[in-house]
Write a structure and sequence with these properties.
four-stranded mixed sheet; two-stranded antiparallel sheet; 10 strands
């Protein structure tokens, strides 16, 4: 049994809401077909990426998530045995493949910094951008600890995965999960997905895949867990994930307090110095104390 993630809908004012929904991506069965990338682009009518160039990153031609790429399949080549205790044949490579997406964080910094309310929390607990009221300030881009959100050059607006809000509102599966041929991308209620993921990790460990681990599932981490979490076969940084993500707005209250104290100290210092300089300029001398 794994620790449950909070139902963030209650924190944002939804008194009656469906269960929190999300993604569980099992990278151990991802075949790198990129069907999720294509389905995401087709359903959401995303513009084409810039002309493809040779990246040198195996078969990865999109490199990262962006305003026009809401699903990105990474290809990581390693000379490492899959199972513990097996001989390492240095003539062979293993590919670690993972379909990345917006994490729909419990503590979503992008929500906190958006000045127009363009980003909002849905009744399903997901985070969506309303492009019609986005002012293109880019605060959300720099606030995201995962580097998910991007701005398009043509319209200057912020864009990211919506977890197919239009589809799940009608009881449909998100396009990427619907298109995945191996069910590497699984969609459903987060509580069910967490149980399923924990069982999958136990199975892999029994089979000798001791490096299998979950990422983004822990409500005690720096963002209180994610609505999209992953089963990885190596350390998070191998896949390009931050090992210890943190809500970038968490320390803002203490930062403002420290800034206020510093500003007050500076003001007192300046006032004292000005008063002393003015007194000396007028030729004043301190009065003697008679005893």
């Amino acid at each position: 049994m794994v620790t449950r993630l909070p139902q963030v809908q209650e924190e944002t004012g939804y008194e009656r809401h469906p269960p929190r929904m999300g993604f569980f991506t099992d990278t151990s069965i991802c075949i790198g077909c990129k069907a999720c990338e294509v389905a995401c682009k087709e359903w959401n009518r995303l513009p084409a990426d810039p002309p493809f160039t040779f990246t040198g990153l195996s078969f990865d031609n999109t490199e990262e998530l962006s305003a026009s790429t809401w699903r990105h399949v990474a290809f990581v080549e390693q000379r490492k045995p899959m199972r513990a205790g097996t001989a390492d044949d240095t003539g062979d490579l293993r590919w670690l493949m993972a379909s990345d997406v917006c994490k729909h964080c419990t503590d979503a910094a992008c929500l906190d910094v958006c000045p127009t309310g363009s980003l909002f929390r849905t009744e399903f607990g997901t985070v969506v951008v309303q492009s019609d009221i986005c002012n293109g300030c880019g605060y959300c881009v720099s606030a995201c600890p995962y580097g998910v959100i991007g701005k398009r050059e043509d319209d200057g607006l912020a864009w990211k995965c919506t977890l197919c809000y239009d589809r799940i509102g009608d009881g449909l599966t998100p396009a990427c999960a619907q298109a995945c041929p191996t069910q590497s991308i699984q969609f459903g209620e987060l509580d069910d997905l967490l149980d399923r993921a924990a069982a999958r990790v136990e199975t892999l460990h029994r089979d000798g895949v001791t490096d299998a681990r979950l990422y983004g599932h822990d409500p005690a981490d720096g963002v209180r867990g994610n609505g999209a979490f992953f089963l990885l076969l190596d350390r998070p940084e191998v896949y390009g994930f931050p090992p210890a993500p943190k809500d970038t707005t968490r320390d803002l209250p203490s930062m403002w307090r420290h800034a206020g104290v510093a500003a007050l100290t500076l003001a007192v210092t300046i006032a004292t110095a000005f008063a002393a300089a003015s007194f000396e300029f007028r030729g004043g001398r301190p009065a003697r104390v008679r005893t």
